[in-house]
Structures are given as structure tokens and as C-alpha cells.
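Milestone M4 deliverable, item 7.
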Amino acid sequence: MRGCRMSRVSDEQWQRVEEVAQGAAEAVGCELVDVSLKQDNYGWVLRVLVEKVALAGDGNPEGTPPGVSLEECSAVSERMTGILDVEDPISQPYRLEVSSPGVERPLKKRQDFVRFAGSRVHVELLEPLDEGGRRRFTGQLQGLEGDEVVLVGDDEGKVSLPLAGIAKARLQVNVDALFGRKAPSRNGRRRSR
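Output delivered:
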């Protein structure tokens, strides 16, 4: 699953942008999560998401990203700028933004679906899964079985989704659990647990 680009950048040029981002992230001990080039109200934005490479015993619960510092984002940005300004693979003016993917991190790579097994996720498919027309699924990620992403959905139980058919996937934070609140019932009142 490649990053999004909505411009006149050729495949070769985009591949070079991804290589530069990958190299810059690795040089400062980070992992590249995603690269996208999109237009917003102020022009084109080259958005790069990085996170610190998880190390055994780093104090983070298993399956959670360890985050990234402002200094690391700045270092990735400086390394990328130095190369992209010289090579100029993107012809139109753009802003470079380097940041953390946040708590609702996108799942882009095959290994993400293994690494975050046990986490709550939201997945959107390119095409409906069945005659029911369902394209959006939320539940607990079980991992990968072959080329299928397996999750236990909130509404449908265990479901297998084709990895190649995923348009978007991201971690989903359970805000109630995060803040120790009781989950609302279906009628809007809080349930006791």
C-alpha cells in the first residue's frame, strides 16, 4: 500500500521521494510510516510520517508505537530538504511536513498487520466484501493469515479481509478505555462493567 500522491509526479520521481524519506528516517533511527503528496487550501503538502523504531525493553507496551521527538522530526526534515532541493523530483512548490503518525496510526505495510495484532483497528476496503455492501470494519486485529487481514469485528465476529483490497487501515483508540470511563450503551446511557 503506497502513499498517496495527487500531482503530476512520475512513478520514478515518486519512488525517489519515497527513497529519500526512507533514508532520512533510517539515518535518525526512525521508521518511515507513510509519505503522501496532497493539495490543501494553501498549496501542495509533502507529508512524511515517521516513528521511532521499537526496541526490546524500551518501556512501551507490546504492539504500541514508541513515538518520535520533535528533534527527530526536524532531523528527518533537514536531511530530506538537503536532497530534495538539489534533485528537485517534485516540480510544483510544496511544503514539507514531518510528524508522528499519532495514536490512530495508519497501517500501511504488511508487517503492520502482524505488529499490531491485538489492537483495535478501523479498516476500509476498496470494494464491498459481500452482497451486503460492507466496506468498513472496526474491531480487534488478529493478524495475517496468508494474504488476508483477520479481525474480530464489533458487529460481525471473525472476518477475513483481502490485504490487496484495503483502501485505508488505522489503529483506533478506545477513548473510554484510555480515560477509564464506562462505555456508553446502545441507548446512549453509560453501562456499568
